[in-house]
Amino acid sequence: MACKLIAFDLDNTFLYDADTVSAANRRAVEDAAAEGVISAIASGRVFTSLPASALAIPSIRYAITSNGAAIYRLPAPEKRLGDNGDFDKARCFRHAVCVHRVSLPADRVEAIMKVLEDYPSDRYPVSFETFIDDRAYGYADYMRRPTRYGLSPAYIEYVRTTRIMVEDIRSFILEHKNHLDGLDLQVGDPALTQELRQRLRHEVPGIYITSSVPNRIEMANEKAGKAAGIRYLMNIFGIRKEETAAFGDADNDIDMIRAAGTGIAMRNGTASCRKAADYVTKPCREDGFAWAVHHRLGITDRLAVKEKFMRAALREAKKAAAIDEVPIGCVIVRDGQIIARGYNRRNRDRSVMAHAEISAIRKACRALGDWRLNGCTLYVTLEPCPMCAGAIVQSRIDRVMIGSLSDKSGSCGSVVDLMHVKGFDHQVETESGILGEECAALLSGYFRSKRKN
Q: Is 357 a catalytic residue?
C-alpha cells in the first residue's frame, strides 16, 4: 500500500549532526512530496530549536516537537522566506501554527523536583532543561562545564545557541510549573542516570519518560510521545496505520516506530530501537533515510531517473564522437520510456539541421504520429542552440533536462532564454547539471584531442 505519511527523527536519523541535512535526504523528502506524501519532523527538540536546514525544506509540512508535547503546522513555502528570497527562520516561526499541545501537570512537576532534591547539582552531575512556550531553558553551569554533564562536544554550540541559561534552574522550574511542555535531565554519570530513571518511573507515575541519548532523561505529559504525534496527524488526515512510515535511531523513537505501519531504524541506532523496527536501514551518514524512502517505501528516486536517461543521451553522444562529430546526444522520454534518440551528425550529413535534438524530435513525431510532443521530456548532453530551442518550444515538449551548459549558444538561459518567453504560447521547464561533469568532460576531451591533431 502506498505511503501517505512519513515522520522522522532529526539527530542521527535525518541530520548528520546538530543542523546538517544531506542533499540525498533533502531530495528524498522532495521525492515523497512529489507523490503526495506528507512529511513531518518528529523531534525531542522544542520548536524554536529546530534547525533552519530542515525548516527550509518546503516539502516538510509538520513538526512534532518536545517528544510529542507540541505539534506545529509549518507555513507555506513563501511564508518561510524573507524579503531577499532566502529562508527566514524568524518569519517561519511567526507564521507556524501550533495545532496541538499537552503540558506537564503541575503536580507531576512538583513530584519530579521532589525526587531531584536528593541530587543537588553541586554534588551530582545533574543538569536540567525545560521547555516553556516554544523556548528552551537550561542550567547555566551546563554551559560552563558541559563535559561534567556528559554533553557531546558536537552539540555544545547547538545547546549554547538554543538555550536561555538560568542560574537557579530548580527554582525557575517550580515557578513555571503550570507551563512546562517538558522537563529533561542531562546526567554525567551512566549509573546515576539509570538510578534516576528507575526512581522517577517508580515514584512519579502518570508521566511520559523516554531518552534520545543514554545519559539523558526526557519527561513530558503522559499523553505525549512521538507515537501520539504521528497518530494525531493520521487522525486529522484520515490516514491509516499501514499508510505511514516512521524513522528513528533512539529509544524515544521506539513508540513512534511501533505506531507506524512501517517502522525503520537506522543502523547506527540503539539495539532496542533496531529491535522494535520492521526494517533496519543504512547508517545516518550513509543517507540511510534516503535509501529507505526509495528502496523500502517505493518512492521514486527522481534524480536516479534523470541520471538514467541522461546516461542514455551520453551513449548517443559517444556515437557522434565515434564518427568524429562534436559529441552531443539526446533522448526523448514519455511515460518513463525512451521513444526517440538522436546524436549530432552535422558534418556527416552536411546539414545544419542534423543536430541531436532535431533528429530526436523528428523520430518522436513519427513514433507518436503527431507533431505535438506534449507529455515528453527531452534529455540532452549540451544546452540547446537557438534552432533546437525553437524546435523544442514549437513541438510543445514539456521539459528539457540539460547536462552541460553552453556559453557560446546556450538558449535555455546561458546566452538567451527561449524556453520562457512570455509572449510565446508555450513555455518549457528546464533543469541543468544532470551528470553535468560527465557531459562536459566528454566535450572537452573531444576538443582537446582535436587540438592535439
A: yes
